[in-house]
Amino acid sequence: xxxxxxxxxxxxxxxxVPIVGGARVTETFWLEGEPPNPTNLPSGCxxxxxxxxxxxxxxxxxxxxxxxxxxxxxxxxFAQ
Length: 80
Description:
This protein is mostly helical. It has 3 helices and 2 strands; from the N terminus they run αααββ. The protein is globular. It starts with 7 loop residues before the first helix and ends in a 6-residue tail after the last strand.
């Protein structure tokens, strides 16, 4: 998960981790808005309100957990 994250939300969160001598966090971190309220989660994908790849499908359909070709599991319509 840390070396090759597949979920766009995970990619954004890991981009926020500062690296000595690396790019500035503000250049790589693209999450906007507030995290979803855990007592009132949004429809569809619970991460869609902050995900840079979110589309209408994300609001309409919760992504199913599926296995990727490399064996990892993900619940994202766009994870590769």
